[in-house]
Design a protein that fits this description.
Shape: elongated
Distance between the termini: 73 Å
CATH topology: Structural Genomics Hypothetical 15.5 Kd Protein In mrcA-pckA Intergenic Region, Chain A
Oligomer: single chain
Helix content: 40-55%
Number of strands: 5
Number of domains: 1
Radius of gyration: 23 Å
């Protein structure tokens, strides 16, 4: 689409840029306050313009992107990545947060799952239960 005549809703653009799997999820995220434009909440029906700067929160990840192209059609992942540019600060911050989550996961004790029959028998013998 040419930039002069393109009018695409925000929820449709987020879906086309592959931030959300369905358009309904994109609309729910915008309505739920997970997408901001210049620090303000917006509506799913807002028209996307080139050079808009959005803050998108998806799970634990927070993206800060600048719109570089507009499309209403969902294409390949390579094509979707041409629709926006993530800021350098956002990339660094997301990498730092991912590293923190990995370290926190390593610090938590992990069980090996449920005990098998032999281990249950040992537990019952040890605790005195029959």
């Amino acid at each position: 689409m040419s930039a002069g005549e393109a009018k695409v809703r925000l929820d449709k653009w987020l879906w086309a840029a592959r931030f959300f799997k369905t358009r309904a999820l994109a609309g729910a995220a915008v309505t739920g306050g997970k997408v901001h434009l210049a620090g303000h909440r917006i509506k799913p029906s807002r028209t996307v313009k080139i050079d808009d700067c959005f803050e998108i929160q998806r799970g634990f990840e927070r993206f800060e992107i600048i719109v570089t192209d507009i499309s209403a059609r969902r294409g390949s992942a390579e094509q979707a990545q041409t629709l926006y540019r993530e800021t350098d600060a956002s990339v660094v911050k997301r990498a730092r947060e991912a590293e923190k989550r990995k370290l926190a996961a390593l610090a938590r004790p992990r069980s090996e799952g449920r005990p098998d029959k032999k281990q249950r028998r040992q537990i019952h013998r040890f605790t005195g239960k029959s």
